[in-house]
Model the fold of this input.
Amino acid sequence: MTRMVTCRKYGQELPGLDAPPLPGKRGEEIFNTVSKKAWGEWQALQTMLINEKHLRLIEPATRKYLTEQMQRFFDNQPTDVAEHYIPTPP
Done:
């Protein structure tokens, strides 16, 4: 049976993640409040930000930036996008 969560991004009961995506308290919070759908969308945005902005994950400032962007994404606040990015229509 699929584990359901009330997704903080969508405000709906949706299928949850199979396991915490990160270690520690932050991972548990995401596991309990973020749907698979929202997590997948965040991963796509994160990948785009890393690639288009040439971010280096070894740098603490980069990890802090991505954490802030992740929180903004899940809370439906504006997030950064890559310059010149044109979203593909659904």
Notes: Residues 4-74 form a domain with the YggX-like fold (CATH 1.10.3880.10).
